[in-house]
């Protein structure tokens, strides 16, 4: 039988793009002729439409140096006897034990089988095959390549699936964190794409149909779809709108369908669209997919369906948290209210600024969110003070002032009675918000970093916004004046490092003020 046709019917014909990544093969042998013969024999070999790309080294030490910098090698054809009688065996042991590379397929080749008996080598070393050079004919070499590269392909898919599952588990454990939606999308997407399609490039997109009545695939001003998960070429595009690669006419056809879940494979690209009962649509796009079985298609449909439901649930929780935050802001504004006709968002702005400043210090998004909520209610002690001031017409003495300020600090006692994390943070803020960096504040004359970090942050943002806000006794001052005040009192009233961060990021701080203007 002619060896040229030995495997002609082994693999189905696969339509691939010209830039399909080749399998990387490492030849390790001190005989130049072995390199030449191997490359010639396998010059036309393909698996899944992927060719082979050969890399050559000539000793065990060269092999180690090469593999330290490369993690994309699918298979190595490794000579046993090179600079020493067991150089190849040492490389095989080093790859598995020291480099901890379990994916690369290792085939030992030897011209001197007596130096390393096959049974002993197979038992002691984690290798995939052991061949004598004299027995490795063209047929056996091609068979060897198929078996090893298929194993590498499938193990690689399993490894990618494992990483995807880890992301899903991590996302579910942090379901309330700001990054959980991204983690959930990314993890499920990587798992599914690796297992079913063997493609590297996929994106999962979301569109809000409430943006326009009768959602269309794209408008003249740009795409309505935002990438919420991506692999390969799209991994760095998360958060951006979809601009390229998509056939928008095809997407429009999917949108016009009466089915909730609809998919098409067009030019080797997969399009799957899911429409929720609410106002959102989800698009799964996978580039360069192979022919999919009915089971694969059903799994992709389930992914688009179920993942969109999970994301919608997370989105609903985010909305609920935002509503709770707004309620607390309203309570805080009521505590801080200056007049019936004046609606001030001082508390909301101060809290949002405090969250921004906390992130600049290295706090997590979750911790910043907790600070924003606590900032809304820490000043609850003002309620009794405002009632007392409303009943007095005479001027306050120093004694009266000190007594009233003690009631302001009493907010700590009120909040400490509530056993929640937000109330605990608010109580700490209420206790320390009137302390000063130089130790001249009250009630305990704390100084420096002994003052609670959240109280130090809010003292700065609250003072800055107060200066920038209209009061009954003065008009709002400009950004420069407010910044000068913080700078003048840096190291006295305020933490100098925090003041520096605040002043370095005033543009971002001012954008927060613009989002929540006061109303009369």
From TrEMBL:
GO biological process: phosphorelay signal transduction system
Annotated SUPFAM superfamilies: CheY-like, HD-domain/PDEase-like
InterPro entries reported for this sequence: CheY-like_superfamily, Cyclic_di-GMP/3'3'-cGAMP_PDE, DUF3369, HD/PDEase_dom, HD_GYP_dom, Sig_transdc_resp-reg_receiver
HD-GYP domain mapped to chain residues: 321-518
Keyword field: Hydrolase, Phosphoprotein
Domain Response regulatory: start-end pairs: 24-148
Modified positions (4-aspartylphosphate) in chain numbering: 79
MF terms in GO: phosphoric diester hydrolase activity
Keyword Calcium attached: no
One family name in Pfam for this protein: HD_5
Keyword Hydrolase set for record: yes
UniProt name for this protein: Metal dependent phosphohydrolase
Organism annotation: Idiomarina aquatica
């Amino acid at each position: 039988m002619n060896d040229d046709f030995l495997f002609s019917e082994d693999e189905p014909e696969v339509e691939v793009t010209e830039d399909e990544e080749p399998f990387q093969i490492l030849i390790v042998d001190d005989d130049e002729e072995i390199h030449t013969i191997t490359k010639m024999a396998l010059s036309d070999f393909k698996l899944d439409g992927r060719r082979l790309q050969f890399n050559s080294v000539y000793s065990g030490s060269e092999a180690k140096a090469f593999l330290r910098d490369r993690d994309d090698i699918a298979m190595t054809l490794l000579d046993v006897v090179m600079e020493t009688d067991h150089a190849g065996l040492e490389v095989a042991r080093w790859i598995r034990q020291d480099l901890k590379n379990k994916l690369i397929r290792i085939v030992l080749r030897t011209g001197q089988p007596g130096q390393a008996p096959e049974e002993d080598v197979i038992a002691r070393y984690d290798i995939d095959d052991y061949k004598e050079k004299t027995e490795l004919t063209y047929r056996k070499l091609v068979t060897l390549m198929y078996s090893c590269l298929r194993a590498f392909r499938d193990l690689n898919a399993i490894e990618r699936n494992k990483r995807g599952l880890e992301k899903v588990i991590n996302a579910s454990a942090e379901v309330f964190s700001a990054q959980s939606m991204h983690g959930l999308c990314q993890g499920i997407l990587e798992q599914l794409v690796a297992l079913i399609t063997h493609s590297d490039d996929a994106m999962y997109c979301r569109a809000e149909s409430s943006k326009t009545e009768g959602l269309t695939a794209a408008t003249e001003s740009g795409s309505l779809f935002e990438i919420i998960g991506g692999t390969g070429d799209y991994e760095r595009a998360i958060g951006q709108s979809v601009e390229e690669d998509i056939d928008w006419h095809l997407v429009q056809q999917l949108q016009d369908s009466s089915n909730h879940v609809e998919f098409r494979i067009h030019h080797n690209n997969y399009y799957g669209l899911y429409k929720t009962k609410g106002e959102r649509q989800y698009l799964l796009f996978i580039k360069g997919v192979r022919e999919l079985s009915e089971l694969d298609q059903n799994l992709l449909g389930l992914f688009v369906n179920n993942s969109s439901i999970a994301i919608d649930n997370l989105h609903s929780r985010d909305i609920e948290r935002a509503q709770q935050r707004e309620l607390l802001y309203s309570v805080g504004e009521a505590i801080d209210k200056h007049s019936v006709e004046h609606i001030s968002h001082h508390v909301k702005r101060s809290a949002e600024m405090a969250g921004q400043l906390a992130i600049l210090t290295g706090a997590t998004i979750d911790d910043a969110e907790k600070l924003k909520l606590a900032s809304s209610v820490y000043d609850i002690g003002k309620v009794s003070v405002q009632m007392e001031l409303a009943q007095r017409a005479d001027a306050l003495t120093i004694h009266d002032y000190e007594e009233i300020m003690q009631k302001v600090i009493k907010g700590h006692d009120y909040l400490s009675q509530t056993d929640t994390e937000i109330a605990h943070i608010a109580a700490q803020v209420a206790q320390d918000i009137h302390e000063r960096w130089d130790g001249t504040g009250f009630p305990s004359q704390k100084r420096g970093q002994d003052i609670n970090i959240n109280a130090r942050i809010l003292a700065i943002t609250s003072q800055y916004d107060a200066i920038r806000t209209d009061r009954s006794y003065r008009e709002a001052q400009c950004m420069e004046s407010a910044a000068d005040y913080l700078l003048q009192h840096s190291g006295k009233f305020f933490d100098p490092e925090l003041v520096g961060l605040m002043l370095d990021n005033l543009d971002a701080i001012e954008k927060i003020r613009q989002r929540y203007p006061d109303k009369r």
